[in-house]
């Protein structure tokens, strides 16, 4: 199983967040840079992947409600796709 570490402290704006996640998750070129598109990418994983999200409170601190919704997208995707697991550190 592949483990991908996401450091939420690196995400200060929505644009920075999508750029950072795009590099970490290898988004396709047509990625829509919104939470629905992120959900679609996460739920399409066919190989097992474990996300370690470090400093998750930084998402909400830096991005407000949108940051909280971002975490929810990861958690919902893990609920829907058995190949994904999410750990908040």
Can you put this structure into words, describing what you see?
- The structure is a single chain.
- By secondary structure, the protein is α/β, with parallel strands linked by helices.
- It is 49% helix and 19% strand.
- It has four helices and three strands.
- Strands 1-2-3 form a three-stranded parallel beta sheet, with helices on one face.
- Helix 2 runs parallel beside helix 4 and helix 3 crosses helix 4.
- It is globular.
- The two termini are 18 Å apart.
- The model has no long low-confidence stretch (mean pLDDT 94).
- Helix-and-strand structural type: alpha/beta
Number of helices: 4
N-to-C order of helices and strands: EHHEHHE
Termini gap: 18 Å
- Average pLDDT, rounded to a whole number, is 94
Uncertain stretches = none
Instruction: Please give the radius of gyration in angstroms.
Output: 12 Å
The helix fraction, in percent, is: 40-55%
| Strand line-up in the sheet with most strands | 1-2-3
General form: globular
Instruction: Tell me what portion of residues adopts beta-strand conformation.
Output: 15-25%
What is the tally of beta strands? 3
Characterize the main sheet.
3 strands, parallel
């Amino acid at each position: 199983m592949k483990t991908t570490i996401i450091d939420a402290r690196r995400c200060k704006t929505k644009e920075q967040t999508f750029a950072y996640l795009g590099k970490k998750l290898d988004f396709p070129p047509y990625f829509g840079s919104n939470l629905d598109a992120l959900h679609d990418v996460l739920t399409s994983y066919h190989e097992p992947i474990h996300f370690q999200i470090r400093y998750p409170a930084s998402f909400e601190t830096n991005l407000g409600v949108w940051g909280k919704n971002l975490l929810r997208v990861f958690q919902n995707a893990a609920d829907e796709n058995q190949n994904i697991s999410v750990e908040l550190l």
